[in-house]
Every structure is written in C-alpha cells, then in structure tokens.
Amino acid sequence: MIDLGLELPRYSHDRCPEPHRPILTVDHVSLVLGGRTILDDVSFKLCPGEFVAVIGPNGAGKTSLLRVIAGLEKRFTGRVDRGGLPPGSISYLPQIQAFHRELPITVADLLSTRLRGSRSRRPVRSPARPPADSPAHSPAPSAAPSPAPSPSSPPLSSALFAPVRGEAARLISAALDRVGMAGFERRLFGELSGGQQQRVLLARALLGPVRLLLLDEPESGLDPDAQHQFYQLVRQVTRDEHLACLAVSHQLHTTARAADTCLLLDRKVLAAGPAAQILARFEERG
User: Fold this and answer.
1) Is residue 102 situated within a structural domain?
2) Could you tell me the CA-to-CA distances from 52 to 77, 108, 201, 275 in Å, in that order?
3) Is the residue at 286 inside a domain?
4) Each residue of 251-268: pLDDT tens digit?
5) Which end of the chain is more exposed for a tag (fewer CB within 10 A), N or C?
6) Torsion sign, CA atoms 234, 236, 242, 246
7) CATH number at residue 38
C-alpha cells in the first residue's frame, strides 16, 4: 500500500452541476483474479468537462480499472454506469509502448482507421493486451491498429488504404489542428517524436462522437516538457469539447497539475479530492 504519511481529503460529488448528469459512475467495484484482490470497493463519478487523474504505483490496479470501465474486463462485482453512452463514444488511448515506433503508415491513414471503425462499430483493441469481448450492453473502446511487421516495409497506406478524401479528410485535418498537429497528414507516424505521436493518437481518439476519454499512462516514454504539454492539451480539449476524461498515471505532480480531481489508488481509493488540494498537501510535506 501507499504510505501517505499525511492526512488527505476524502472527497466525492454526488451530482454534477445542473443540468448535467454523470457520464460515468463507478459504484463499489471490486475485482479478484486468481485469489488476488486487484480492485477493492472503488467508487467515484465523472462529470462532463471533468478531468480526473487516478494516481498509483505499479500493480495498484490502474489499468484493470480502465478495462472494467471500458467493458473489457467483466469479472468484477459492483456497478459501472456509463450513462447510456452509445457505441463508439468511449475512446481509449493506450501507452505509447504499445505501438511500433517505425509503424509504416501515414498520420492521415492512421486516423482514418478510427473513422472506419466508428462506422462499422467493430471494436479495435490495444495490441498490448489480449482481446476480451465486451458485454453486450457496453460500448467498446477505440485503440490504434496492430503494429506493422517491419520498418523497412513500404507504407501501409499504398497497399491497404484508399486515399483519404472529402469529409474524412476534413475531419482528420480538423482533429490534427485541434491538437496542434496541422499539416502532418502525410508524415509517417514512425518519423514523429514521442510527444508528436501521442498528440496524433489523441487526435485519433477524439474522432467521432466521443464522450468519455480513457488514458493509460500517456506520459510514458515522454520527457518532462512533453508530458506537461500533453496533459495541458488534454485539459484544454476536455473542457472545450465538454468530454469526461479519466487518466491513470504513477506521476502525481505531472498529472495533478492538469487534472480537476485526483484519486490515489492502491487497489482501493486511499484519498480523493480536488487535484490542486492533494498536490499542495504533498508539496507541503516536501
């Protein structure tokens, strides 16, 4: 367990500001696998326009919590209410290590896979984890396509994708502009820096009728400046688009500075409250 060494607030809001309703309600969720407790009586709510950071060490249950919320992990007790979100409205951004850095695909074609997936409503899972069928009532998250076999291969664009034109091209350009990546449509994904790759993946995650954004340690592999810039971008997009965003991380200071609410998780919620308040308590401790 995390040794907090200081008292932290217990905080939760029972309702969202009028006239909004929670996009996500996690109610007394527990998960036990192979006799090991992964999550223990976790409860919280997520409102439109709110950015919640879930902070905890490795093995704290952070990724398992995302999988439960996304509908990929069904062996839990308790209740997860996604507020009647339609299919395709939950978008999942996995860790950058899940992708081949020399992926021979252009930025535009990478984003176009999200549009094709949204139209077919077929779930595309993260290559970092084994497939798991979602419950029938649960919307499936969106993740990036499987890695390409070899960096020396010709771009997949020429072999697998029709040219991106018309409305699809307009949507892709608008999504890239939203994350500060305008004009990168024809660049190869593998040529980009880690921070640029995460911005592209965020743009992809935001395509379609997204209402809930799930981020799995998106700062992994990024330098401190890129981490800060990415989380500030997520905060801005969350508020501008009135989405709900849940980001799991082991970096308290980097994530909490951008989040509205912070949950400290080590299988159970140890403390929760306004992110600025929790961060201030830790900084006072030194």
Assistant:
1) no
2) 22, 30, 19, 8
3) yes
4) 888 898 899 999 999 999
5) C
6) positive
7) 3.40.50.300
The answer to whether residue 127 scores a pLDDT higher than 90 is no
Angle (CA) 254-110-49 rounded to 5° is 40
Residues 6 or more apart whose Cβ sits within 8 Å of residue 228: 254, 257, 258
pLDDT for residue 278 is more than 80: yes
Q: How does strand 90-93 pair with strand 24-33? A: unpaired
Q: Which residues of 73-96 are buried (b: 16+ CB within 10 A; e: fewer)?
A: beebeeebebbebeebbbbbbbbb
* pLDDT tens-digit readout, 62-89: 999 999 999 999 999 999 999 888 878 9
Average pLDDT along the chain: 79
User: How far, in Å, CA of 258 to CA of 253, rounded?
Assistant: 9
Q: Which pLDDT tens digit goes with each residue over 180-225?
A: 999 999 999 989 998 999 899 999 999 988 999 999 998 888 889 9
Domain count, the chain: 1
Whether 78 maps to a domain, the answer reads yes
The answer to the question of residue 43 being in a domain is yes
> What pTM value is reported for the model?
0.77
Q: Give residue 67's domain range.
A: 10-85+211-286
Mean of the pLDDT values across residues 156-160?
Answer: 50
